[in-house]
């Protein structure tokens, strides 16, 4: 099948008529489907709902003489810190176990850098003049919004299949106003790329001009394979320590996509010095996080080995959904020269790079046919995709039959948007 | 019995010898007792531990088609907002239900005022020059520390049995640099005073020069009577609205001393406009709070009437402890002219005003006999009690027999400290 670019005007018109007919038929189905956010499905939540009955007796709440129902232990229950150390390959003393959202820990870290400064800050960032922050893009909109909300200048760094373009990163960090970078090292949001060992090494050996440069290492999908075996990942905290900048990295993770998205536990991992400094700052903010929920999670998830078994069961639900998305993309869009994508083995997204200038129109057409996707541009700083190309698909929430329908709408819309571009006029 | 001031030097020496002997005997018991923090006792926690088994079935988690286990509903579950509206006498739309700590909501409010500004702020407080904050004292150390940590100047306002001295408050708020005040309107920490209707009215009718002046209304003990019937309290949010400054007040409460201290739910109540503004700021910080725990609490606590029944059971445990404290104070310290105190009917503290210049020494002697109390000065800004007089007693945690012993140590230490002052030399 020839690419659209190689077809004649007449052939394109015929294709457009076919697609229009199909689109109109889909519109008549009055669909209402949502692929906008990486939400686990109800089947996944039901699967882990034994969490609700894991901790039922008052006696279970007493650990080493301390009552987890009461105030105390700001940095988290010892067993919860051990759990996360096992998960991330670091030491319990290098962890701070927080509340239900790692995003909140990231926000608080940036907020404290702004109001009080980080461990090695010469001054709080609010007194440091212009602050710049590196945003490998496409990336996670909520990361970018945090730093945007504090008025930092967001600088786009190109993403590659091996992680952020480190030549660019190494160049940019020579500017002392550049204070940090957002990273999703494993199954990056949205492309599903895993940073290569060389990329991770170059991160650990980064020599930024800012003494308080912060690598925001959001290991959101650290055990989230939906296909194949668990892929081990390096401990970025030791790597930074070995390279002589132990305080440069802050790693984040949570159980949001292991147990309940809104009711899990989260962790910040960093050098012991960083953890002590931050614990002291956080002691002004709160007395302790929800340790009953921490204990509930440790009892339920046990350790990394047991968590990985549970992730296999998530994969049984998620895997077929990703296969469906990829099957539809392949069947509908291969060899037309109007879109390409990567096949991830984990994470929560598939990212489709549509022909430049067609992403926004594709999403508009999807929306008019009742299918909601993440807004165009969301994966770039300030919500602006300079090529109007990247589209993030989140297949986890809908049941598989709805997903197939939603993908049919998506592919048809993308083809219509491309055809409009080639033909030079709008089709509907 | 004559007051110490009326006794002869010889009589004081004899009293000192008696007290020394008693103190030394107490020291030999090698006690290790803690009355430093308002922690509920294990008996109270066991009493409410049915909370652990209130929410056990996946089906319970689906409310009006929405799954409380998943992301969403940033301002809280509808039923949780209704619960808090019932508790506080405001509207559900005027509530934002947060995580496990109202202190965290207070911190976040001040932090956001600093970084982004409040609804009516001309500029974020970090760009507004010198900020001053009013601290009715004695008060709650954690309140004062929040505003101190942002570098605000803390201004002491005298407390009276009817609340903060409003003549002083009304005068101070004419300074536009004065941006807010900390309040515990019912059973104030540490004295247990409840603001009178006139005080509350004067708060609602305050006309501060700063357009973004914030009354931090920490209703921590709103239903926390340990003696007698529930005392209704006015809805400060309507009162401020009626007085024409609806956005001036932020009310806080939590279940920390109703269910589990570290694992409850919290609320911020304010004008609808404030709630909308803050929800939009908080949407950058987190996706949602722990709604499973919100639902668990609503199922367990039901409504205000049912919560008040539970508070009666807490009172059955707490009441005798406060009676013991007051009995010991009366027996040991009445009519000596060296201390006075107030008899609260609710809250978590008894505050003893020792003879000026003797609080720190009293606590030192307590500590040397194995009894830990809140640090001297903690109830004043910057941790400095200008009269070295106020001592906060938190009788909730120890069992009653330990409490009696701890109070014996306390009274003996206080008398020794006073005797040293009268005699002019240290006794040990």
Q: Which word captures the global form of chain A? A: globular
Quaternary structure annotation: homodimer
In the sheet with the most strands of chain A, the strands line up as 4-11-10-9-8-5-6-7
Number of discrete helical segments of chain A: 13
Q: Estimate what percentage of residues of chain A fall within beta strands.
A: 5-15%
- Fraction of helical residues of chain A: 25-40%
Largest interface, by Cβ-Cβ below 8 angstroms: which chains and how many residues each? Answer: A-B, 52 and 53 residues
Rg from alpha-carbon coordinates of chain A: 23 Å
- What is the mean predicted local confidence, pLDDT of chain A? 97
Low-confidence stretches of chain A: none
Largest sheet of chain A: 8 strands, mixed
Q: How many beta strands in the DSSP annotation of chain A? A: 15
Sequence of secondary-structure elements of chain A: HEHEEHEHEHEEHEHEHEEHHHEEHEEH
Helical/strand content category of chain A = alpha/beta
Terminal-residue CA separation of chain A: 25 Å
């Amino acid at each position: 099948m020839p690419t659209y670019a190689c077809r004649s005007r007449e052939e394109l018109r015929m294709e457009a008529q076919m697609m229009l007919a199909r689109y109109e038929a889909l519109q008549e189905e009055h669909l209402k489907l949502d692929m906008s956010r990486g939400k686990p499905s109800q089947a996944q939540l039901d699967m882990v709902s034994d969490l609700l009955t894991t901790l039922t007796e008052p006696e279970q709440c007493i650990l080493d003489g301390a009552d987890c129902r009461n105030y105390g232990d700001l940095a988290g229950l010892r067993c919860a810190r051990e759990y996360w150390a096992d998960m991330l390959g670091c030491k319990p003393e290098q962890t701070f176990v927080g509340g239900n959202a790692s995003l909140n820990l990231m926000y608080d870290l940036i907020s404290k850098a702004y109001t009080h400064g980080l461990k090695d800050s010469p001054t709080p960032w609010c007194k440091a003049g212009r602050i710049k922050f590196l945003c490998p893009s496409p990336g996670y909109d909520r990361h970018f919004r945090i730093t945007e909300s504090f008025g930092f200048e967001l600088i786009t760094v190109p993403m590659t299949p091996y992680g952020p373009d480190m030549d660019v990163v190494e160049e940019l960090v020579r500017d002392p106003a550049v204070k940090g970078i957002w990273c999703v090292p494993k199954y990056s949001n949205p492309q599903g790329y895993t940073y290569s060992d060389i990329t991770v090494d170059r991160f650990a050996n980064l020599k930024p001009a800012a003494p308080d440069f912060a690598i925001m290492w959001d290991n959101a999908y650290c055990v989230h394979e939906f296909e194949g075996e668990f892929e081990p990942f390096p401990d970025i905290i030791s790597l930074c320590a070995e390279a002589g900048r132990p305080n440069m990295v802050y790693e984040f993770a949570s159980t949001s996509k292991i147990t309940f998205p809104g009711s899990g536990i989260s962790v910040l991992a960093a050098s012991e010095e960083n953890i002590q400094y931050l614990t002291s700052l956080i002691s002004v903010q709160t007395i302790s996080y929800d340790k009953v929920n921490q204990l509930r999670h440790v009892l339920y998830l046990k350790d990394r080995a047991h968590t990985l078994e549970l992730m296999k069961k998530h994969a049984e639900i998620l895997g077929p959904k990703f296969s469906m998305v990829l099957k539809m993309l392949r069947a509908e869009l291969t060899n037309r020269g109007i879109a390409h994508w990567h096949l991830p083995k984990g994470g929560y997204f598939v990212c489709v790079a549509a022909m430049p200038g067609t992403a926004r129109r594709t999403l508009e057409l999807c929306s008019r046919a009742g299918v909601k996707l993440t807004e165009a541009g969301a994966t770039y700083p300030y919500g602006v995709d300079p090529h109007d190309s990247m589209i993030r698909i989140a297949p986890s929430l809908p049941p598989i039959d709805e997903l197939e329908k939603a993908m049919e709408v998506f592919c048809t819309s993308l083809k219509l948007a491309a055809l409009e571009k080639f033909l030079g006029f709008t089709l509907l």
